[in-house]
Amino acid sequence: MKRLIALLSILFQAQAVFAQEFRLAVISASDLRELAPAPVGEVQAVAELSGMEEREAAAYLADREDQSGADEKSVPGEPAASDLGGDGFIKLYHEWNKEVLAVRYRGADGRYLPEALAKVRHFMRCRLTGREADIPAGLLEIIDAIQERHGDKTVTVICGYRSPELNGALASDSSGVAKKSLHLKGWAADIKIDGVRTSALRNTARALRAGGVGYYPSDGFVHVDTGRVRHW
User: Fold this and answer.
1) Which among 142, 143, 179, 229 is most buried, taking Cβ atoms within 10 Å?
2) Residue 2 C-beta-side C-alpha neighbours within 13 Å
3) How far apart are CA 179 and CA 21, in angstroms?
4) pTM value?
């Protein structure tokens, strides 16, 4: 009898082990997604985000876009562009990528130049992922007009297009980051001009009445976008 009980105990344990191994062998599609290695781009994005300097991260986190009119921000279609008094030539410096771009984006006939717009698209790419988005000519007109009114000095760009990965990472660190930011469309830029007061840039941008204007004096930049006319 004791031998029978011992035998049954051994069989029961073996069955339990077999069942456990079988369950471990059954992997669902969600399990595969969890076990699969992250795409190279995502790994690179995480690495670059963790490597951001504190000053750089603070500049992004400071960009707290106006949350009113969120529905309008999600409306598809590129905003119309209009000549705001600029000469059609912009000089830009990207603070993070350390790149310079001087380009004529509007011809003498008033038409926008595709090759120039492609250069601007690359220049304004996401700092984190390197992905690009179409930049509306209207945003260039705003920057051009501001530049023209401040001695044609080079405009420093802190942030142009912002990928969902970057915006999501920043939003998780700060409730002030707009979840429907116009940076996600490429319709916004954070700018400054060396030697020009941030308040002066704000006043110039507001006077254009060509879109949104965000004022960040403690961080030394102004947000401009091609959304509806508003300021914060």
Assistant:
1) 142
2) 0
3) 44
4) 0.71
What size, in residues, is the chain? Answer: 232
More confident residue, 140 or 12: 140
∠ CA 207-185-224, nearest 5°, is 20
What mean pLDDT is reported for the chain? 77
How many helices (H) does the chain have, and how many strands (E)?
Answer: 9, 7
| Residue closest to 57 by CA, chosen among 141, 128, 115 | 128
Neighbours of 67 (CB within 10 A): 12
* Edge-to-edge strand ranges of the sheet holding 230-231: 99-104, 89-94, 155-159, 188-192, 221-225, 212-216, 230-231
What tokens does 162 get? 């912002």
Residue 4, sorted as left (phi over 0), alpha (psi -120 to 50) or beta, turns out to be alpha
With CA atoms as reference, report the closest residue to 231 among 62, 58, 68, 61: 68
Q: Which are the contacts of 96, defined by CB distance < 8 A and separation ≥ 6?
A: 56, 127, 158
- Specify the DSSP class assigned to residue 183: G
- Class of domain 55-231 (CATH, top level): alpha beta
Name the 3-class secondary structure at 100: strand
CB proximity list for 11: less than 8 A, separation 6 or greater: none
Q: Are 150 and 196 in contact (CB under 8 A)?
A: yes
